[in-house]
Amino acid sequence: MEVKFLKAGSGDSIIIHHKIYNIVIDGGNDSKYLLSEIDNIYKNNEVINLLVITHHDDDHIKGIIDLLNHVSESKYDINRPFIEKVIFNSPRLILGKLPKDDNNLLSYRQAHIVEELLQKINTNWTQYTDQSKPIVFEDLIINILSPAVEDLKEYSLQKGAYLTSDWKCDWKIPMWRLEPYITDKSQDKSISNKSSIVFQISCDNKKLLLTGDVTPGRLQTILDQLSAENGGLPVQYDIVKLPHHGSYRSLNKSILEKLKCNTFIISTNGKKYFLPNKRALLKVAKYSKRINGGAANFFFNYEETLNNIEIHTKEKIDYNFIVTPNNENYGIHFRYS
After folding, report:
1. Is the pTM of this model over 0.90?
2. Which of 29, 252, 259, 296 could in theory staple to 59 by disulfide, Cβ–Cβ 3.0 to 4.6 A?
3. Share of the chain above pLDDT 70, in %
């Protein structure tokens, strides 16, 4: 299994390749590297077996629009559909129609464009929730942990979906000064983020948790259940993508105490809402459990984002963490045998 966290602007774009299977999750709002990866899939005489749009915020869906236009314009000559299956909890799919008077808002307008493009290339899309059956590609298993059906219905009736932030930049503040302010008093409760798809992917004796932009309340519900199934112990993962591009408002102590992981992904170019928050790194370093007592390793898909955050050697020693920039020009690449 290979996992790539692509440079995708301020958003997420993830590609998983296993044997002959390709899974694309989100497109960010900069599709340069995504479209290059899509061309490589075609050149290898393979297809996108699964395309997932976790939710329709601009920094997750804009690159999908570019991808679908690219597929349509390229007219890939292949004996089967180039995109086999799509998961997209679009408002029209939930309601059976486009929400009234909302098609002029950015998020809904982009969702509508995606629906039209999927119809143009004759590809259907499916609604998935935490009640859906796992998706299986031989020994690769995808479990959908969120959203709940009732959250999707509530979201589909909202007046738009926008990224939330307190707009406070903490990049230049030493961690010892931030520590008294990493309480959980300010938490993201937006229904748009609560409706985000959350995955657990298992393959090659590895487990990944991909959280989209999920809210801490919803993520806590998920981890409470997983921990209970694990005998009350923290749930172990090889990789956790931090929700909402490393926002401290998307994490709390209760969540992190139920996670056991050494590798955390931060996916953003740092040009929107001062994300990631340095306070989020501090929360993870202080409260998450580590495999074999190791350090928390924060992987950044943009080295320039890491460079913008002032992290000193003493801070890494004091709080037992390390930071790692992208290991490929296109982002982060993990390869498991």
Report:
1. yes
2. 29
3. 91
Tell me the pLDDT tens digit for each residue of 79-138.
778 999 999 988 766 665 555 544 445 567 788 888 888 888 888 889 999 999 999 999
What's the rounded Cα separation, in Å, for the pair 169 and 180? 16
Cα dihedral across residues 165, 166, 169, 175: positive or negative: negative
DSSP string across 177-221: HHGGG--SSS----HHHHT--EEEEEETTEEEEE-TT--HHHHHH
What is the per-residue pLDDT across 43-86, written as a single tens digit (0 to 9) for each?
999 999 999 999 888 788 899 999 999 998 887 777 778 999 99
Q: Find out whether 269 and 296 touch, Cβ atoms under 8 Å.
A: no
Going by pLDDT thresholds of 50, 70 and 90, the confidence category of residue 164 is very low
CA separation for the pair 224, 213 (Å, rounded):
18
Q: Identify which of 6, 14, 117, 17 has the alpha carbon closest to the alpha carbon of residue 70.
A: 117
Task: Give residue 312's domain range.
Answer: 2-335
**DSSP 8-state secondary structure symbol assigned to residue 130:** T
Q: What distance in Å separates the CA atoms of residue 191 and residue 219, rounded to the nearest whole number? A: 13
Count of structural domains, the chain: 1
The torsion defined by the Cα of 193, 220, 11 and 64, in degrees rounded to 10, comes to -60
Q: pLDDT tens digits for 223-245?
A: 999 999 999 999 999 999 999 99
CATH of the domain at 157: 3.60.15.10
64 CA to centre of own chain: 14
CA distance 110 to 118: 12
What length does the chain have?
Answer: 337
Instruction: Count Cβ neighbours within 10 Å for each residue of 204-243 and write b for 16 or more, e otherwise.
Output: eeebbbbbbbbbbebbbbbbeebbeeeeeebbebbbbbbb
